[in-house]
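[stage:ingest] chain + small molecule (2-phosphoglycolic acid)
[stage:ingest] validated
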Amino acid sequence: MKVLIFDTPEEAVKRTARMITDQVQAKPDSVLGLATGGTMPPVYEQLSNEYKNGTVSFANATSFNLDEYVGLSPTHPCSYHEFMRQELFSKTDFNPANTFLPRGDAPVPNSEADRYETLIKEKGPIDLQLLGIGSNGHIGFNEPTSSLASRTRVKTLTASTRDANKQFFADGETPPNHAITTGIGTIFDSKTIVLLALGEKKADAVAGMAEGPMGAHNPASALQMHPSVTVILDQAASAKLKLREYYFLAHPDGEEPEYR
Ligand code: PGA
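[stage:predict] done
[stage:export] C-alpha cells:
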C-alpha cells in the first residue's frame, strides 16, 4: 500500500484526478470503477475541467459505480445515478451506454446484485477503481463485518452511515436502510485501486486500514492484501498514522518519481 500525504485537500484531489486521467490517456478504453459521496465532487470537477481543456476524453471508457440505494429509481434526486449524471457524466463525454450502476428500483434487489456482478465480470476487469472510505472503514457500502471475500449483494447500512449521508437527502427524507454494493472480493479484482480520504473524520478509519490488523471490523483493511493500492490523503486524514514519517520519507509531500 502506497500512502501519499499532501498538505492540502486540493493537492490530494488533484493527484487523484491525475491518476485517473493518466489511466485513460494510456488506455482510452479503460474500465473505471467510480465512487460517490461528499469526497468525490472535486475530483469529478477536475476531470470535467481536463475534458473541457481537451486533455482527456472518456468517449471510449466504461464505468462501473460501486453502489446504489435500494428503492431509489435512477431519476430520484438522491440516487447515485443522479449524482453521477450531475457531477461527471453530463459534464464529460462518457458514453451513457457504457456507464453502469446497479438499479436501486429493481424488483428483486438480490437478482440485480447478481446481474451487476456478472456484468462487471463480462466487461471487466476494472483497470482503476476509485474508492472513498467511510468513517467506519467501509469501502463501497461494505459495512463492518462484511466478508472480505464478498461479491455484489444487498447490505444493510449502519446507523452511522445513514446518519453521515442524511446531509445529501431533503429535509424529512432519510437514506434507505439497504444498498446494493459491489463486494470486497469484487473490488479486489480491480487491477489498481486509488483511495482518497480527506479530513479529520477519516483519520481513525485510515489508520486502521493502513496499519491496523486486517479484519472485518475495518473492511478497508482488506486492501493491505491487494498488490496495487495508492492511498491519497490530506494532512488531517493522515493524523492518526503511526508511520507518517516513513511515508514522508518514501514520498515527501506525496511526491512520486512519475509525478515530479
Ligand atoms: P464521503 O463518503 O465521501 O461522503 O465521506 C465516503 C464513503 O462513505 O465511502
